[in-house]
Amino acid sequence: MRARSRRVTPPVPVPAWLAVLAALGVLYLVIPLAGMGAAVPWGRFGELITGEASRDALWLSLRTCAAATVTDLLLGVPLAVVLSRSWRGVRLVRILVALPLSLPPVVAGLALLATFGRRGLVGQVLEGVWGVRVGFTTLAVVMAQVFVSLPFLVITLEAALRSRPSGLAETAASLGAGPTRVLRSVTLPLVAPALARGTALSLARCLGEFGATLTFAGSLQGVTRTLPLQIYLARETDSDNALALGALLVVVAAIVVAVTEWTPGRRSGPVSEGEQAAAEPAGPGPARSLPAAPVDLDGGLSARDWRMRLQIPAGQVLAVMGHNGSGKSTLAGIVAGRLRLDSGRLRIGDRLVDGEHTFVEARRRGVTMLGQDPHVFGHMSVLDNVAFPLRCRGVPRGRARQGAAEQLAAVGCAHLAGRRGSQLSGGQAARVALARALAFEPAVLVLDEPTAALDVEASSHVTRVLAARLAGAGTTTILVTHDVLEALELADAMIVLDHGRLVERGEPARLIARPASAFTARLAGLNIVDGPLVVGDDGLPGVAVGDRRLAAAQLPEGATLAAGDRVALVFAPEAVGLHAAPPSGSPRSALPGAVEAADEAGGLVSVRLGLDGGAVIRARVTTAAWAELGAPVGGRLWAVVKATQVRVVPLA
């Protein structure tokens, strides 16, 4: 059976009036060119453009335009990069760079003449001291062309640099790339179309430059008379020659601009997550050649009210959990070198990387950070992406690619080696980014919710790959996550943060099974009923629920709690028994309530019960037990919880 063709959603149509105005704009630009083309004596075209004066003007224009364009690139690319950053005075400099665009060319020529002419501020020094004359020379033609064309390149490139995807340069730096390599290998390739367009616009402007050249360089045949000047002079004596040269200039300019509109066709798009999962299973992966490093942190960031004392042994995978705003990403940023402590210190291995008088930048820490956006370099092949950190370390290309291939095989992506990074699905990109991070052999690997942006299938597969690779790599890892199952599957230890403080630490399974904080209990999907501590006549601690009491068997070991202190009582949904009437028996709590919802999955029914008094709890019973109860939504039931299955958690 033939595969169904992919349907592309048509774009939202533009308003008819807008299309009409756009068409008028195109006609206004095209009709004059067509009129000039109709007037050109094409039968004599070759003869007209090959006269001595025409040849000299054409050759001079080509030479000066080439020199001016190279100068534009040498000056314009650095200028655009600097102007794309934020610093004091950048807006003023942007205005000054754009100013030549609004100046009449004659004014530009006068400015150049007043500065570099024989009596100019700089020109008289150049000629008097070094004997160098600028005005009315071929050099003056190049300078005039650069003055009027440079802003086209700078503005086009700067706009692209400011709108490029964020985080890619930081990722490259964290993989060991220096500023020059980041610029050459990541930043400029990302804006290559804008660089090409800006270069073409500058070249086209050079080809058409007239007023500044005539004012500053004059019109000497073979020396300063470019093609536009020759056309202007020929217009008065030989209009056919002027039309032929004008048509030639239009054709050359059209070719220059048209080249920037050509882009090579893209290869096939990404394979589906199902295809990529079945294509090649993850392997054990290469072992580390560099030792993992421990982390010793004792410091704070007062602007975020964040303070932490934390030690991570070498090779440990530490899960970091907490509610939004608890300080998880701050911890990740501090270790990765994207944030700086304002008190205390941070050591990675035996090296102080952040202290009172010390701050080691991200690219020199040996720490790699992988977040929700994997920041795969879209312009590189997958193989070159993974080889990138090895090349930054000076590893020869062949060996780097061999090491990258081994890492790709370990995450099940060897079949994607030839694809571009921009052709990967979310799950593929996450696995490639992991392979690249492990190829770097970081002292510490920071994973900031690496699967949060993936769908369920891709997230499950990436988690399995992470488990296999982290277990085999022996890399010290900080895993920031909201997913309890991810923490249980990947981590050796877990910490829980709250309001910038560490509140719990231990093995993930133990913390989830016996949480010491309400937040950890919620993570585990447990029921939480909070309120002031009440001690009943039976001596059991509990909290009031309506006119009844939910009791626990005992207080936490070592806790000093008094009646009235706020506590949370925590218990699993499986610990709740549902009855049509209150039973009697061993110490337990019997609480009446109304059924708010019931959902069946896998042979079990999860029942949400709104207790009298306002608390809401969940119970999990078999479908047979639920059918026997026969309670509809809104029906009344009794929830029975044994005191021995209830834990008391102190609240701040």
In short:
The protein has 652 residues and is of the alpha+beta class. Helix content is 45%, strand content 19%.
Molecular structure report:
- By secondary structure, the protein is α+β, with helices and mostly antiparallel strands.
- Helix content is 45%, strand content 19%.
- It has a six-stranded mixed sheet, with helices on both faces. A five-stranded antiparallel sheet has the order 16-20-17-18-19. Strands 2-1-4-5 form a four-stranded antiparallel sheet, covered by helices on one side.
- A hairpin with a 2-residue loop joins strand 4 (343-348) and strand 5 (351-354).
- Helix 16 crosses helix 17 and helix 17 crosses helix 18 (426-439).
- The two termini are 65 Å apart.
- It is found in: Cell membrane; Membrane.
- Residues 584-650 form the Mop domain.
- Belongs to the binding-protein-dependent transport system permease family.
- Residues 58-260 form the ABC transmembrane type-1 domain.
Describe the structure using short key phrases.
single chain, 652 residues, alpha+beta, MetI-like fold, OB fold (Dihydrolipoamide Acetyltransferase, E2P), 3 domains, six-stranded mixed sheet, five-stranded antiparallel sheet, 45% helix
- How would you write the strand order of the largest sheet? 6-7-8-3-9-10
Helix content estimate: 40-55%
CATH domain topology of the largest domain = MetI-like fold
CATH superfamily of the largest domain: MetI-like
Mean pLDDT rating: 87
Main sheet specs: 6 strands, mixed
Per the principal axes of the C-alpha atoms, what is the gross shape? elongated
Specify the number of helices. Answer: 23
Main location: membrane
GO cellular component, one term: plasma membrane
Membrane topology: Multi-pass membrane protein
Region (Disordered): 265-294
